[in-house]
Specification:
Blueprint lengths: L3 H22 L1 H4 L7 H26 L3 H13 L9 H10 L2 H22 L3 H22 L11 H5 L2
Helix pairs in contact: 3-4, 3-7, 4-6, 6-7
The chain binds heme C.
Heme C binds next to helix 3, helix 6 and helix 7.
């Protein structure tokens, strides 16, 4: 006699392989890459480097109770609205046209979280600062997983999961 349990497991495995590969071919996944000219991409990277340096400094400031520094960092991050500075009119137009709504939304959320981090620092509450810092870093990963998978292939394996949200 056949072991029906085994058959069911095999059938389910085959079905899920088919399902995964269909998912991987879905064009919506690919369209999440940003289509930017070289100069704008260079500016974005420059901006990211600054954000990375600023956000790393939060750890030490939090550990040492240096609330003023964290407030300053929060302001710095908020002021860095996706490459607002140094843009020509045509670059600005390109950004407006090329950046997907989802990217703009994540960017706004990121800046809102940076603001909350600053407020927590102003209130001198280490626990809330730590929480808001975690939320800030989380928004780095969410945006990178959606828009920077080529740059950060570590997020590639999460493709399926992201699409379930
Ligand atoms: C709204 C989207 C978004 C958010 C939020 C975001 N990033 Fe990025 N980041 C990107 C994209 C897109 C790239 C890839 C740019 C490219 O094509 O190379 C990137 C690239 C980077 C790079 C690589 C830059 C380089 O020189 O190649 C670093 C470092 C980085 N991000 C750090 C951070 C950190 C740290 C945070 C959070 C504190 C963060 N980013 C938040 C979108 C975002």
């Amino acid at each position: 006699m056949f072991n029906s349990k085994k058959i069911i497991i095999v059938v389910m495995a085959i079905l899920s392989i088919g399902w995964i590969s269909t998912y991987a071919q879905e064009p919506a996944v690919l369209s999440e890459e940003l289509h930017l000219s070289e100069d704008l991409r260079a500016l974005l990277r420059e901006e990211m480097q600054e954000i990375a340096t600023a956000s790393q400094a939060v750890v030490l400031s939090l550990a040492t109770g240096d609330w003023k520094s964290i407030e300053h960092i929060s302001e710095k991050i908020r002021a860095s609205y996706v490459m607002e500075r140094k843009l020509s009119a045509s670059q600005r137009r390109e950004l407006e046209e090329q950046l997907p709504e989802h990217f703009k939304k994540l960017d706004m959320e990121f800046h809102a979280r940076a603001e909350k981090l600053g407020l927590a620092a102003a209130a001198r509450d280490p626990e809330i600062v730590a929480f808001q810092y975690y939320r800030l870093v989380e928004s780095c990963t969410v945006c990178h997983a959606a828009f920077a998978k080529t740059r950060f292939p570590g997020f590639l394996s999460n493709e399926l999961e992201i699409h379930h949200h």
